[in-house]
Amino acid sequence: MSARIVFDLDGTLIHSAPDIHAACARMLEEEGIAPLDEATITSFVGNGLPHLVKLVIEATPLDMADHPTLSQRVLDHYNAVSGELTRPYAGVLAALDALAAQGHRLGVCTNKPEAPARDILRLMGLNRFACVIGGDSLPQRKPDPAPLLQAFQELGDGPNLYVGDSEVDAETAHRAGVPFLLFTEGYRKTPVADLPHHASFDDFAALPALVARALSPAS
């Protein structure tokens, strides 16, 4: 059975935290502030760049009144370093190719701005998606279900599956009423058992079989 399968990006398809950390570190260095460690920046990922920068400001002596300017500077730095340290998770390419070969239509729904999302997909050789919905593609962002539902709409008809790694992704899928496959090696902070999900996996080699089971009438 052919399905519409939409993926989150950061922490799901790609390990991008090192480049995001580098962009934040460059902005903080310009402000004369010591960089936050990578684990802290990683914990800020998931709700889009403006929210991430808000958390950086709250964790430092920066002024929230400068939030728009600082957000743009982090984005500019990210665009400059994007792809230097980012890598697809092991097995992602093979899993996507297997799903496409089975006739599934693939999309991305991320809170990363759409242009940087498309750029990193191209740089990582992940040009396998019929649609990419970014955090600025609609007025709403995840966990509002609207971006995910828009991605499904652009992929045509068929059953839906969403693949992600975080609390935001789990809530988005729940609010959209679609089965959620949880990649456990991403950026979540909550125990797996505490997140609503149809199935979980820690290796992309397992994903095609999980999709087949999720689409089975007996699942």
Decide which structural class fits the backbone: alpha/beta
Which fold name fills CATH's third level, the topology of the largest domain? Rossmann fold
Secondary structure tally: strands: 8
How much helix, percentage-wise, in residues?
A: 40-55%
What does this structure look like?
- The structure is a single chain.
- With about 220 residues, the chain is an alpha/beta fold.
- It folds into two domains: about 5-15 and about 85-215, Rossmann fold (3-Layer(aba) Sandwich), CATH 3.40.50.1000; about 15-80, Orthogonal Bundle (DNA polymerase, domain 1).
- The protein has nine helices and eight strands.
- It has a six-stranded parallel β-sheet with strand order 5-4-1-6-7-8, with helices on both faces. Strands 2-3 form a two-stranded antiparallel ribbon.
- The mean pLDDT is about 95.
Output the keywords.
Rossmann fold; 219 residues; DNA polymerase, domain 1; two-stranded antiparallel sheet; single chain; alpha/beta
In short:
The protein is an alpha/beta fold. It contains 9 helices and 8 strands. It has 2 domains: 4-15 and 87-215, Rossmann fold; 17-81, DNA polymerase, domain 1.
